[in-house]
Design a protein that fits this description.
By secondary structure, this protein is mainly beta. The protein has 2 domains: 110 residues, no CATH class; 194 residues, no CATH class. 8% of the residues lie in helices and 38% in strands. It contains 3 helices and 26 strands. The strands form 7 sheets. It has a 6-stranded antiparallel sheet with strand order 11-10-23-22-21-20, with no helix packed on it. 30% of the residues are buried.
């Protein structure tokens, strides 16, 4: 009886090793094979290779292809068990497909999340706005083909394709390089615009009976303590918390949050109490105050709204607004020169995870160089 149990255990173990849950139809997946994946004209390695698609390509699975027994392919001398799936062809700008033809890939190389950002995709964006221009804001759009995917009905949210047009469009604005953060730690600079968080206001409850939220309010001292200003959470139609971030001595201002949906950061003058809009997203001001960078995640467009502008200038500043689509800032941000910074990022698809779809992506760091 014990021998039978052992045999059953081995059978179950082998089945578990070979089995792979079927992918969900009408769902978008990424190619997770670093060397790329063959898109074939039929469900098998004997069928013609239509195109080899790179790591990070997003495909929409149409249906699983029924198979009998174990299905496997040989990859670098090893057996990979899985199933062939019918997919919608990708809508990359430089790929030409017969959209009436059925196309297939092997599902073991597909996943809902990537382990790292494809290097070729770090420039991808859907919109570049020259805010300082006076000709309709000088909008450049369509550089990322994500919108094309929506137009074809595939409705996938993140695109990691290599699109040289994106890097070309940004050549006079910003350039990125993937780096090892540890090589730049000793170059970290601090300047006059560091946010000081040591002092924190004492908060007290704000009574508001119609919303079951712990609303708060607090006082900020003005003019060396001779006066003060009351800061309250917004409790109206567009209710949101008014967070206190700290103060910047060089600007003689406190920083507080404004309208939450646009991630507004407001300056409150420490002498007069006057409020001034500073940025959308937390401000990162260069050591000598020449540039201001800020970013926030747009939950409606699934993009990173990234702003770069000249800060300490008397004339009309150069000011650019970019909607990036392949990464989201995470980890540390620091300046290494007046126009260069280090920023941690994760693949954009880490935003779209749930209990059935967890991301294990590794943080990478970008060196950004401002070009104006």
């Amino acid at each position: 009886m014990k021998a039978i149990s052992n045999i059953l255990f081995i059978v179950v173990l082998l089945y578990s090793a070979f089995a792979k849950a079927q992918l969900k139809p009408d769902t978008c997946y990424f190619i997770n094979a670093q060397s790329g994946l063959n898109l074939r004209s039929g469900p098998g390695t004997d069928y013609e290779v239509v195109q080899k698609l790179p790591y990070g390509t997003q495909l929409k699975v149409i249906e699983n292809v029924p198979s009998t027994g174990k299905t496997h392919i040989i990859d670098n001398g090893q057996k990979k068990y899985g199933q062939w799936v019918l997919v919608a062809p990708p809508t990359f700008y430089d790929y030409q497909f017969d959209y009436e033809q059925k196309m297939y890939v092997f599902d073991v190389f597909l996943s809902q999340h990537l382990n790292s950002i494809p290097r070729a995709s770090i420039y991808n964006f859907v919109e570049l706005v020259n805010v300082s221009a006076h000709d309709g804001h000088g909008i450049t759009s369509g550089v990322s083909s994500r919108r094309e995917m929506w137009e074809t009905g595939q409705q996938c949210d993140v695109r990691y394709e290599n699109n040289p047009a994106a890097q070309e469009a940004l050549k006079d604005v910003i350039q990125f390089e993937i780096i090892n953060k540890e090589n730049y730690i000793n170059q970290k600079l601090t300047g006059n615009y560091t946010v000081d968080t040591k002092w924190q206001p004492k908060k007290f409850k704000l009574e508001y009976e119609y919303r079951p939220v712990e609303w708060e309010q607090y006082y900020l001292p003005l003019d060396g303590g001779k006066d003060s200003i009351l800061i309250k959470d917004h409790t109206g139609e567009w209710a949101s918390k008014t967070e206190y971030y700290g103060q910047i001595d060089e600007l003689d201002s406190y920083l507080i949050s404004g309208f939450a949906e646009d991630a507004e950061v407001i300056m409150v003058n420490r002498t007069t109490g006057k409020r001034t809009m500073l940025s959308n997203g937390f401000p990162e001001i260069s050591p000598r105050g020449e540039y201001l960078i800020s970013e926030y995640f747009n939950v409606f467009a699934n993009t990173i709204q990234f702003s770069i502008r000249e800060f300490d200038v008397e004339t009309i500043p150069q000011d650019y607004f970019i909607s990036f689509t392949s990464w989201i800032p995470a980890g540390e941000f620091f300046w290494i020169s007046e126009n260069q910074f280090i920023m941690g990022v994760l693949p954009m698809d880490t935003i779209f995870q749930d209990d059935t779809s967890k991301s294990t992506a590794s943080l990478i760091y970008l060196k950004g160089t401002i070009q104006f």
